[in-house]
Specification:
292 residues, binds adenosine monophosphate, binds zinc ion, binds fe (iii) ion
Length: 292
């Protein structure tokens, strides 16, 4: 039985492993297939693809598209999109630029009370990486102000903190449309987490009407009742069900393979995406794919 994890982050966004190292860690963790889904960027794909060819595991290129509806931040995973699609790539570039502006604003607010600068924050991100609060968190850790990223998110960087600046982002329906237009497969990430970001069945139905093709049912932040709702919705609306770790290297406790996607659901996802190429490694599914 294949072990498939479809949600991971690298230093191309806010993970702590380089893209190739995410793939090597996935092989090491006994995974047969892994997707790289950095926030709002495809820049880790080439290195990840090369590493997957080297270690012989299956690699699926993906993104995690930041969106917003009202006060809610909604993450839409997009698998197998065409990275050259003009409108998608322009939107992602704009989002990354906005994230830098917002990161700088948070840093400047923090600088009033703490000994840090925006330049310090940039030292905690790879050049060209998508900036996020985790880079601010790492700066606070280096300065000895908090112990780790989790403490930073629970305190100084929380959405209730006076230093918080919200992230402007497109509506999820727009992200779904762009992912589909770029040949990709849109799957909503961790949709039923505890708290104010959880989506209701009605919210999800609206996204399905907008073209959503899957829901991330297996994720440590989803509630048991929410997962039950997702399984019913998926059966009724013929959605792809995924399960994944949302690995961020040392930046979060999430471990590779802690939630998995079934081979049946993975085959549906692969068949539905045509904007870019997966690397198909060895294994039952690999043999089927190379026979096509
Ligand atoms: P941002 O996108 O800048 O608003 O930051 C949110 C990102 O930070 C999420 O996508 C997670 O990847 C990460 N994150 C959220 N909570 C935590 C936490 N407690 N510890 C580490 N990383 C976190
Ligand atoms: Zn993240
Ligand atoms: Fe997310
Ligand atoms: Fe994520």
């Amino acid at each position: 039985m294949w072990r498939i994890d479809l949600h991971t982050h690298s230093t191309a966004s806010d993970g702590t492993d380089a893209p190739a190292d995410v793939i090597r860690a996935a092989a090491q963790a006994g995974l047969d297939a892994v997707a790289l889904t950095d926030h709002d960027t495809t820049r880790g794909w080439d290195a990840a693809r090369a590493a997957a060819l080297e270690v012989g595991i299956t690699f699926i290129p993906g993104i995690e598209f930041s969106t917003r509806r009202g006060h809610r931040s909604i993450h839409v995973l997009g698998y197998l999109v065409d990275p050259q699609h003009a409108e998608l790539s322009a939107t992602l570039q704009h989002l990354r630029d906005e994230r830098s502006v917002r990161g700088k604003r948070i840093a400047e607010a923090l600088a009033v009370d703490y000994p840090l600068t925006w330049a310090d924050v940039l030292e905690h991100a790879e050049p060209g990486a998508t900036i996020g609060r985790p880079h601010l968190a790492d700066t606070l850790v280096t300065k000895g102000i908090v112990a780790d990223r989790s403490e930073a998110f629970a305190t100084i960087l929380s959405a209730r903190s006076p230093y918080y600046v919200p992230q402007d982002a497109p509506d999820p329906a727009e992200a779904i449309h762009l992912i589909r237009a770029a040949g990709g497969v849109p799957v909503v990430a961790h949709p039923v987490s505890q708290g104010r970001h959880a989506l209701s069945r009605e919210d999800l139905e609206q996204l399905v009407d907008a073209g959503l093709m899957g829901v991330e049912e297996g994720h440590r932040e989803n509630t048991p009742a929410g997962r039950e709702m997702l399984r019913r919705l998926a059966a009724e609306r013929d959605l792809i069900l995924t399960g994944s770790s949302d690995y961020h290297g040392l930046g979060k406790p999430n471990r590779l393979g802690e939630h998995l996607t079934s081979p049946e659901q993975f085959a549906r996802l692969l068949a539905a995406g045509h904007g870019s190429e997966a690397v198909i490694g060895q294994g039952a599914l690999g043999a089927q794919e190379s026979a096509r």
